[in-house]
Amino acid sequence: MKSLRLVAILAACSFAGVAPEAAVILPASLGELVTGARAIVHGHVVAVEPRWVDGRRQIETMVTLHADAYLKGDLGSDVTFKVPGGQMGPYRSMMVGAPTFHEGDEIVVFLNAQGPTVPWISGLNQGVFRVADDGSGAKIVTPGVSLAAGEPQTVRGDPSRQRLDLDAFTHRVRGLVRDGRTR
Protein backbone atom coordinates (compact mmCIF):
# COMPACT_ATOMS: atom_id res chain seq x y z
CA MET A 1 0.00 0.00 0.00
CA LYS A 2 2.88 2.37 0.82
CA SER A 3 4.53 1.69 -2.54
CA LEU A 4 1.26 2.45 -4.39
CA ARG A 5 0.93 5.75 -2.52
CA LEU A 6 4.57 6.60 -3.32
CA VAL A 7 4.01 5.90 -7.02
CA ALA A 8 0.92 8.14 -7.01
CA ILE A 9 2.81 10.98 -5.31
CA LEU A 10 5.74 10.69 -7.73
CA ALA A 11 3.38 10.71 -10.72
CA ALA A 12 1.57 13.81 -9.42
CA CYS A 13 4.89 15.59 -8.85
CA SER A 14 6.16 14.77 -12.33
CA PHE A 15 3.03 16.19 -13.97
CA ALA A 16 2.98 19.30 -11.77
CA GLY A 17 6.03 20.75 -13.52
CA VAL A 18 4.62 20.30 -17.04
CA ALA A 19 2.86 23.34 -18.47
CA PRO A 20 -0.02 22.53 -20.81
CA GLU A 21 0.51 23.66 -24.40
CA ALA A 22 -2.03 24.62 -27.00
CA ALA A 23 -1.96 25.54 -30.65
CA VAL A 24 -4.14 28.16 -32.24
CA ILE A 25 -4.51 28.23 -36.01
CA LEU A 26 -5.86 31.51 -37.33
CA PRO A 27 -7.94 31.19 -40.48
CA ALA A 28 -6.27 32.55 -43.60
CA SER A 29 -8.20 34.36 -46.30
CA LEU A 30 -8.03 33.04 -49.83
CA GLY A 31 -5.93 36.07 -50.77
CA GLU A 32 -3.42 35.29 -48.02
CA LEU A 33 -3.17 31.69 -49.19
CA VAL A 34 -2.65 32.83 -52.80
CA THR A 35 0.02 35.36 -51.84
CA GLY A 36 1.88 32.93 -49.57
CA ALA A 37 1.94 30.00 -51.97
CA ARG A 38 4.79 29.32 -54.35
CA ALA A 39 2.50 27.12 -56.46
CA ILE A 40 -1.23 26.39 -56.61
CA VAL A 41 -2.03 23.07 -58.27
CA HIS A 42 -5.30 21.41 -59.31
CA GLY A 43 -4.85 17.68 -59.79
CA HIS A 44 -5.37 14.09 -58.73
CA VAL A 45 -3.45 12.23 -56.03
CA VAL A 46 -1.58 9.34 -57.67
CA ALA A 47 0.53 8.12 -54.72
CA VAL A 48 0.53 8.36 -50.93
CA GLU A 49 3.69 7.02 -49.29
CA PRO A 50 4.42 7.34 -45.57
CA ARG A 51 8.07 7.30 -44.48
CA TRP A 52 10.08 7.41 -41.29
CA VAL A 53 11.93 10.63 -40.45
CA ASP A 54 14.09 11.83 -37.58
CA GLY A 55 15.67 8.42 -36.93
CA ARG A 56 12.34 6.56 -36.91
CA ARG A 57 10.88 8.95 -34.32
CA GLN A 58 8.28 10.54 -36.62
CA ILE A 59 6.33 9.72 -39.75
CA GLU A 60 5.61 12.03 -42.66
CA THR A 61 3.67 11.25 -45.80
CA MET A 62 4.89 11.98 -49.30
CA VAL A 63 1.94 12.74 -51.60
CA THR A 64 2.35 12.73 -55.39
CA LEU A 65 -0.14 14.80 -57.34
CA HIS A 66 -0.63 14.64 -61.10
CA ALA A 67 -1.15 18.28 -62.09
CA ASP A 68 -4.19 18.90 -64.27
CA ALA A 69 -3.59 22.68 -64.12
CA TYR A 70 -1.45 25.22 -62.32
CA LEU A 71 -3.20 28.32 -61.03
CA LYS A 72 0.13 29.77 -59.88
CA GLY A 73 3.71 28.67 -60.51
CA ASP A 74 4.75 25.39 -62.12
CA LEU A 75 6.47 22.46 -60.42
CA GLY A 76 6.08 19.95 -63.27
CA SER A 77 3.46 17.48 -64.47
CA ASP A 78 3.77 15.45 -61.25
CA VAL A 79 4.61 17.15 -57.98
CA THR A 80 5.45 15.47 -54.68
CA PHE A 81 4.85 17.30 -51.41
CA LYS A 82 5.16 16.31 -47.76
CA VAL A 83 2.53 16.23 -45.06
CA PRO A 84 3.33 15.71 -41.36
CA GLY A 85 1.99 12.46 -39.95
CA GLY A 86 1.03 9.14 -41.43
CA GLN A 87 0.92 5.44 -40.68
CA MET A 88 3.64 2.80 -41.01
CA GLY A 89 2.28 -0.62 -40.11
CA PRO A 90 0.92 -0.42 -36.55
CA TYR A 91 2.58 2.97 -35.90
CA ARG A 92 0.63 6.14 -36.50
CA SER A 93 1.77 9.74 -36.19
CA MET A 94 -0.75 12.58 -36.21
CA MET A 95 -0.50 16.36 -36.27
CA VAL A 96 -3.50 18.54 -35.52
CA GLY A 97 -4.56 20.35 -38.68
CA ALA A 98 -2.62 18.11 -41.06
CA PRO A 99 -4.75 16.80 -43.93
CA THR A 100 -4.85 13.19 -45.08
CA PHE A 101 -4.97 12.01 -48.67
CA HIS A 102 -5.93 8.91 -50.63
CA GLU A 103 -5.07 7.87 -54.17
CA GLY A 104 -7.68 9.27 -56.54
CA ASP A 105 -8.50 12.38 -54.45
CA GLU A 106 -9.06 15.44 -56.62
CA ILE A 107 -7.73 18.57 -54.92
CA VAL A 108 -6.49 22.10 -55.35
CA VAL A 109 -3.46 22.53 -53.11
CA PHE A 110 -1.49 25.63 -52.13
CA LEU A 111 2.19 24.65 -51.89
CA ASN A 112 5.19 26.38 -50.43
CA ALA A 113 8.91 25.59 -50.59
CA GLN A 114 12.25 27.18 -49.89
CA GLY A 115 15.17 26.37 -52.13
CA PRO A 116 15.56 22.77 -53.26
CA THR A 117 13.41 21.29 -50.46
CA VAL A 118 10.33 19.15 -50.94
CA PRO A 119 7.24 21.40 -51.04
CA TRP A 120 4.70 21.44 -48.21
CA ILE A 121 1.11 22.64 -47.89
CA SER A 122 0.62 26.29 -46.91
CA GLY A 123 -1.56 26.45 -43.80
CA LEU A 124 -2.02 22.67 -43.47
CA ASN A 125 -5.78 21.93 -43.91
CA GLN A 126 -6.42 25.54 -44.94
CA GLY A 127 -4.25 25.05 -48.03
CA VAL A 128 -6.23 22.07 -49.33
CA PHE A 129 -9.45 22.48 -51.28
CA ARG A 130 -11.27 19.23 -52.07
CA VAL A 131 -12.96 18.86 -55.46
CA ALA A 132 -16.05 16.66 -55.74
CA ASP A 133 -18.98 16.03 -58.05
CA ASP A 134 -22.14 17.65 -56.66
CA GLY A 135 -24.33 14.86 -58.02
CA SER A 136 -25.37 16.73 -61.16
CA GLY A 137 -21.98 16.45 -62.88
CA ALA A 138 -20.73 19.88 -61.74
CA LYS A 139 -17.47 20.01 -59.80
CA ILE A 140 -17.59 21.80 -56.46
CA VAL A 141 -14.55 23.02 -54.48
CA THR A 142 -14.75 22.87 -50.68
CA PRO A 143 -12.13 24.53 -48.45
CA GLY A 144 -10.39 22.61 -45.71
CA VAL A 145 -11.88 19.30 -44.69
CA SER A 146 -14.50 18.00 -47.10
CA LEU A 147 -18.09 18.39 -46.00
CA ALA A 148 -20.37 15.41 -46.28
CA ALA A 149 -23.18 15.52 -48.80
CA GLY A 150 -26.22 17.33 -47.48
CA GLU A 151 -24.30 19.61 -45.10
CA PRO A 152 -24.63 23.39 -45.35
CA GLN A 153 -22.84 25.12 -48.23
CA THR A 154 -20.91 27.54 -46.02
CA VAL A 155 -17.88 26.82 -43.89
CA ARG A 156 -17.57 28.08 -40.31
CA GLY A 157 -15.33 31.07 -39.79
CA ASP A 158 -14.58 33.33 -42.72
CA PRO A 159 -17.86 33.84 -44.63
CA SER A 160 -15.92 34.03 -47.90
CA ARG A 161 -14.81 30.39 -47.49
CA GLN A 162 -17.74 28.72 -49.22
CA ARG A 163 -18.22 25.86 -51.60
CA LEU A 164 -17.73 27.15 -55.12
CA ASP A 165 -18.06 25.79 -58.62
CA LEU A 166 -14.57 24.70 -59.80
CA ASP A 167 -14.58 27.17 -62.70
CA ALA A 168 -15.62 30.06 -60.42
CA PHE A 169 -12.97 29.09 -57.87
CA THR A 170 -10.27 28.86 -60.57
CA HIS A 171 -11.31 32.25 -61.96
CA ARG A 172 -11.22 33.81 -58.47
CA VAL A 173 -7.77 32.39 -57.63
CA ARG A 174 -6.28 33.41 -60.99
CA GLY A 175 -7.69 36.91 -60.47
CA LEU A 176 -6.01 37.13 -57.07
CA VAL A 177 -2.72 35.89 -58.58
CA ARG A 178 -2.96 38.42 -61.42
CA ASP A 179 -3.87 41.33 -59.13
CA GLY A 180 -1.40 40.39 -56.39
CA ARG A 181 -4.07 41.08 -53.74
CA THR A 182 -3.92 39.63 -50.26
CA ARG A 183 -7.58 40.01 -49.23
Itemize the secondary structure elements and their pairings:
Elements: H1 2-16, H2 30-36, E1 39-53, E2 58-72, E3 78-84, E4 86-88, E5 91-93, E6 106-112, E7 120-121, E8 128-133, E9 139-143, E10 164-165, H3 166-179
Antiparallel strand pairs: 1-2, 1-6, 2-3, 4-5, 6-7, 6-8, 8-9, 9-10
Short description:
With 183 residues, this protein is of the alpha+beta class. It has helices at residues 2-16, 30-36, 166-179, and strands spanning 39-53, 58-72, 78-84, 86-88, 91-93, 106-112, 120-121, 128-133, 139-143, 164-165. The longest helix is centred in the N-terminal third of the chain and has 15 residues, at 2-16.
Detailed description of the structure:
The structure is a single chain. The protein is an alpha+beta fold and 183 residues long. The chain has one domain: OB fold (Dihydrolipoamide Acetyltransferase, E2P) (Beta Barrel), CATH 2.40.50. Helix content is 20%, strand content 36%. Strands 1, 2, 3, 6, 7, 8, 9 and 10 form an eight-stranded antiparallel β-sheet that branches. Strands 4-5 form a two-stranded antiparallel sheet. A hairpin with a 4-residue loop joins β1 and β2. The longest helix has 15 residues. The N and C termini lie far apart (64 Å).
